[in-house]
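Give me C-alpha cells for this 221-residue protein.
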Amino acid sequence: MARSKKNHDTNREVLIKIALELFLENGYENTTITQIMKAANLSKGGMYHYFTSKEDVLNAVIQFGLQQEAEKLKAKVEALPVEQKLFGFAQSVDIGDFTRKLLNYSNDNQDSIVAYKVLEYNTHLLIPLLTEIIAQGVAAGIYKTANPTEVSEFCILLVRAIADTNLLPATDQAGILRRLEVFSKIIITCLEPERAHAEQLIQIFKSGMHLSDLEEDDNVE
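Here you go.
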C-alpha cells in the first residue's frame, strides 16, 4: 500500500529531529548515515526513501529549524503597522527548542560546515522578508530608497559580520559598538528615515547586540 503524503512528512520530521540529536551528541562530522538509520530504526532502503546522503539530512535539519523561525518572524512583522515593521524585524523573537539547539551547535562549532550552512540559509531566508518591509516603508513614505533589495542584502550581511566573531578581526565590546554605529549610519543614509525613527532603530540594534548599557553617543546625523 502506498504511503500517504501526510505520513511521509510526519516520519521525515521525526527523522530530522533524531538526526539533530545525533549531531549534537557526536558532532556532524562524526555522525554517520548508518548511525542515523539505526537510531531511527530504519532499513537502508527506508532511510534512502527520505534522504540520499548525510549532507542531505543536514540540509533538511537546517531548513526545518530556520524555516520555522522565519515563518514566526514573518507573522509577527505582518501584524505590525508599517512604521513598526522594521523595528519588529530587528528585535529578537523567542525561538523554539529545536532551532535553539541547532543555533547553539552552530555557534559552538564555527569550523564546522554546519555553521556555514546555517549562516547561508538564514541569510537567504531573511533578505526577501526585509526587502518587503523596506518596500512597504518606501510606499508609505517612511524610507527613501530606489533599491530595497540591495539595501536589505547589505544590511543582513553587515549584521552577520558584526555578530559573527570569526568574520572580522577580534575586538572588544567598545569596538563592536563602534562597528554598530557605523552600520547604523550606513543604513540610515540608505533609508533616510526621520530622526526619531532612526534613533529608535539604533536603540533596537544596540539592545539586540546587548550593548545598550554602553554609554556612548549615537551621533545620528
